[in-house]
Design brief:
The complex is a heterodimer of chains A (321) and B (173).
Chain A: H1 2-28, H2 32-56, H3 62-67, H4 69-73, H5 76-89, H6 94-113, E1 116-125, E2 134-137, E3 150-152, E4 157-164, E5 169-173, E6 180-185, E7 191-196, E8 201-206, E9 218-221, E10 235-243, E11 252-257, E12 266-272, E13 291-293, E14 318-320
Antiparallel strand pairs in A: 1-2, 1-12, 2-5, 3-4, 3-12, 4-5, 6-7, 6-9, 7-8, 8-11, 9-10, 10-11, 13-14
Chain B: H1 3-22, H2 36-47, H3 50-65, H4 76-95, H5 102-126, H6 134-166, H7 169-172
Helix pairs in contact in B: 1-2, 1-3, 2-3, 2-4, 2-5, 2-6, 3-4, 4-5, 5-6
The chains are: A alpha+beta (321), B mainly alpha (173).
Chain lengths: 321, 173
């Protein structure tokens, strides 16, 4: 009896495995049924993700907040005094303010580049089971978004639109291991390829054997034909180390991305590129350090006589940038 | 194995899939993400007999294949979960009933979650997919296994209760 049950389950196993292989073959041959089933799922999930996004937004960074608790504890005293002043000024919800800041920053970058963009909220992230690094945004084909459009944040490149439904789109993040983008070093104009590594660091391969890379070099997107999938001039990352291995034909560098992909809330999709290439116009410039020089003023006694300082003439404070 | 139980399990798994895609995926877990769906599916597989485990594994894999963010061919997860269903049921028969050994069940489910991800990657590699470097793959698989280990003591009793409700009175005896 048990033998019969085992035989039946083995037969069932074989049938189901063959069915799975049949489905895989259909998908690899480009049968639209499998693709449309995923699009239908995305259309079904998008409204639920939108609702869940609002509810889960405050807790989505729960673990990272815990991790930083030790660091922030030391600043607690300062924050408490500042909090009393700020409480009166807080009108909007902290979360909304953060989103507003990200939106402003993204629109600022788009405005400087002359891109026409559609702003969208991040409503979902790729599950661990998918092994791909993606986000779901709440704007789709009804907003003018199509496949292979560039997605940016306030700091720079985020990724590229992978698939679209009427009310949502999936964006492949630049950190995904399958992600490749042509880049240009802003300083030397040498071209290269940036490869996603699965985290916040990237590998850049310089195409020009005679070109040079330096630590601190900023990379911008090279741009694609007809601006799909990448428009030119988008800031991407900064070189943190250069690999001088003589064994490889081209130079390699480790790059840190300008955009923090782990806490994205608002992004912009470039639906119309700029009429002219912004070249290096969007490269972030370092904020100048402010140095303040103060010359001590002489203390004047009540009688009006100086205190004995060498120079009794009061000099104004000088501020040098 | 009743078709109604397979259908109810599939419906339950679809509900968990929606929760996973809409809510759990939003949380930035340290080390690597956590898949509630895989944990629940492994839990169900560990409680079923051979035929039911294979069937639930297949339908559970098909649901996972529906994930819009997935980059693998449709059917790859179905293939993996069908194999996992068979492996689970075959091993469970030699290990015995898990209801009296909850710690063994938690370990079995966590190990299964890790192994299923590794099988998925291996099949993906055979199909020519690129899923990143070895360190990232290891971190993702082991990180998910760790989270499954931590959360399973909460999830599995609830899952066991759900399964008990889906059984007929004759099956409960």
């Amino acid at each position: 009896m048990a033998q019969g049950g085992n035989n039946r389950s083995r037969l069932l196993l074989v049938i189901l495995l063959v069915t799975s292989l049949f489905l895989i073959t259909l998908d690899l041959r480009g049968v639209s049924l499998t693709q449309s089933s995923r699009s239908a799922t995305q259309s079904f999930l998008a409204p639920i993700q939108r609702v869940a996004s609002s509810a889960f937004s405050p807790v989505s960074h729960f673990f990272s907040d815990i991790k930083n608790f030790g660091k922030t504890k030391a600043q607690l005293k300062d924050v408490q005094s500042a909090n009393a002043k700020l409480r009166a000024q807080v009108i909007l919800d902290k979360n909304t303010q953060g989103q507003l800041l990200q939106l402003k920053s993204a629109l600022n970058l788009a405005g400087r580049g002359g891109y026409k963009v559609v702003a969208a909220r991040v409503i979902g992230r790729g599950s661990v089971s998918t092994f791909t690094q993606t986000i779901t945004i709440d704007a789709g084909s009804s907003d003018g978004i199509t496949k292979d459009m560039t997605v940016i944040s306030g700091a720079g490149l985020v990724g590229v639109v992978k698939s679209v439904t009427s009310n949502s789109a999936i964006v492949l993040l630049m950190s995904d291991p399958s992600f490749r983008v042509g880049v240009r070093i802003a300083r030397t104009q040498s071209a290269g390829v940036l490869l996603g590594q699965g985290d916040s660091s990237y590998t850049m391969q310089l195409l020009d054997p005679a070109g040079t890379i330096k630590v601190g070099d900023v990379l911008v997107s090279l741009g694609s034909e007809n601006n799909r999938p990448f428009v030119p001039g988008i800031p991407i990352g900064r070189v943190t180390s250069v690999d001088h291995t003589s064994a490889s034909l081209t130079q390699q560098a480790t790059v840190i991305g300008l955009t923090n992909l782990s806490n994205l809330e608002i992004v912009s999709v470039i639906i119309k590129p700029a009429t002219a290439d912004p070249r290096d116009g969007l490269v972030p410039t370092p904020i100048p350090t402010v140095t303040v020089y103060v010359t001590p003023a002489p203390v004047v006694l009540p009688s009006g006589s100086p205190t004995g300082l060498p120079s009794p003439t009061p000099s104004p404070s000088q501020v040098k940038k | 194995m009743r078709p109604a139980r397979i259908a109810s399990s599939a419906a339950f798994l679809f509900f968990i899939f929606v929760v996973q895609e809409a809510a759990i995926s939003r949380i930035n877990f340290p080390i690597a993400g956590y898949s509630l769906y895989i944990a629940v599916l492994m839990g169900l597989l560990a409680m079923e007999d051979r035929s039911a485990a294979v069937m639930i594994g297949f339908f559970g894999g098909v649901i996972l294949d529906l994930s819009p963010s997935i980059d693998a061919p449709f059917g790859q997860w179905a293939f993996v979960m069908t194999i996992m269903g068979y492996i689970f049921a075959a091993n469970r028969e030699s290990i015995g009933d898990f209801s009296t050994r909850p710690a063994a069940l938690v370990l079995f489910v966590s190990l299964g979650a890790t192994v299923s991800l590794l099988i998925f990657l291996s099949i993906g590699a055979l199909l020519g997919e690129s899923d990143g470097n070895f360190q990232r793959i290891l971190t993702t698989s082991l990180g998910n296994g760790l989270w499954t280990l931590l959360f399973s003591p909460i999830i599995l009793p609830l899952l066991s209760r759900f399964r008990h409700l889906s059984l007929t009175s004759r099956e409960r005896k």
